[in-house]
Amino acid sequence: MLKTCVKLRRFCTIVNSSGAQKLRNITRVWFTPLPPDSKFIKPCRLHFIENGVEKDRDIIKIRDGLMILIYNVTRKKLVLVRQFRAAVYHGIISGNTLDIPEGDVDLKLFPPELGVTLELCAGMVDKQKSLEEIAREEVLEECGYDVPVDSILPIYKYRSGIGASSGGHFLYYCEVNDSQKVASGGGVHDEVIEVVELSIDEVECFVQSGTEINGAPGLLVAFLWFLANKASKYRACCANDN
Ligand SMILES: Nc1ncnc2c1ncn2[C@@H]1O[C@H](COP(=O)(O)OP(=O)(O)O[C@H]2O[C@H](CO)[C@@H](O)[C@H](O)[C@H]2O)[C@@H](O)[C@H]1O
């Protein structure tokens, strides 16, 4: 059972097939040092004195992010995304070292699929707009649903990786229906995002102990919240439909 669940992302129902095709088309990967003018991360060393002892920590400042757990009430499916995450790929191929590989990565040895995550619809907080408005835009751009901003409901606020980088993470819940589906999703500009769906049973299978995920813990947090707060309501709906 567990084995099946761990591989569950392979069984997700793919919604936007063009996103799925493009996701499998990474043909070259290589690394360079980080230029000092990155718009996305800023490394620094933070010093502090604690109980009279001077200490320091090497940290990376990142932007806040928000994630939206989407449930399609018409299709009775959770709507998720898959995409190639460079940081995940590097984390996997470098193992537990701080090495930056030189030259091109051998894609036969390390297929780009290693860096493909299953995750919630998400975005960076990088605009002068309300969090809910940014979330609404991400739901449209990544998953193709045009929803009113008041259907974006806050669930939790927590922080990402607390050792070296720590962004604020805002988790939202949004119910959508098929009539709000106005586009195929897949992201904007050069984003390559595959939209996938999972049933409540599949989500339940996903969160059992021992599951290994190629992504952020926010996905599991969101699934557990859904199972604790929403699943019984929608299971009852399904039973009544039959
Ligand atoms: N490190 C980087 N280097 C270069 N270009 C980058 C970059 N990060 C983003 N970009 C560019 O910005 C675009 C938009 O990014 P998004 O708003 O979708 O944020 P993302 O989902 O990557 O991360 C958000 O969501 C995830 C959760 O999935 C959070 O962990 C994260 O903090 C939050 O920013 C990307 O398509 C890419 O072009």
UniProtKB/TrEMBL annotation:
Cited CDD domains: NUDIX_UGPPase_Nudt14 (cd18887)
Enzyme Commission number, as recorded: 3.6.1.45
Cofactors (names): Mg(2+)
InterPro entries: NDP_pyrophosphatase, NUDIX_hydrolase-like_dom_sf, NUDIX_hydrolase_dom
Residues of the Nudix hydrolase domain: 61-220
Uppermost EC category: hydrolase
Compartment annotation: Cytoplasm
A cellular component annotation (GO) from this entry: cytoplasm
Alphabetical UniProt keywords: Cytoplasm, Hydrolase, Magnesium
Gene3D superfamilies per UniProt: Nucleoside Triphosphate Pyrophosphohydrolase
Signal peptide: none
UniProt catalytic activity: UDP-sugar + H2O = UMP + alpha-D-aldose 1-phosphate
GO BP, one annotated term: nucleoside phosphate metabolic process
Nucleus among keywords: no
Gene Ontology MF, one: UDP-sugar diphosphatase activity
PANTHER family attached to this UniProt entry: UDP/ADP-SUGAR PYROPHOSPHATASE, URIDINE DIPHOSPHATE GLUCOSE PYROPHOSPHATASE NUDT14
Subunit structure: Homodimer.
Role according to the record: Hydrolyzes UDP-glucose to glucose 1-phosphate and UMP and ADP-ribose to ribose 5-phosphate and AMP. The physiological substrate is probably UDP-glucose. Poor activity on other substrates such as ADP-glucose, CDP-glucose, GDP-glucose and GDP-mannose.
Name the UniProt record assigns to this protein: Uridine diphosphate glucose pyrophosphatase NUDT14
The species this protein was found in: Drosophila lebanonensis (Fruit fly)
Upper taxonomic lineage: Eukaryota, Metazoa, Ecdysozoa, Arthropoda, Hexapoda
Gene behind this protein: LOC115620938
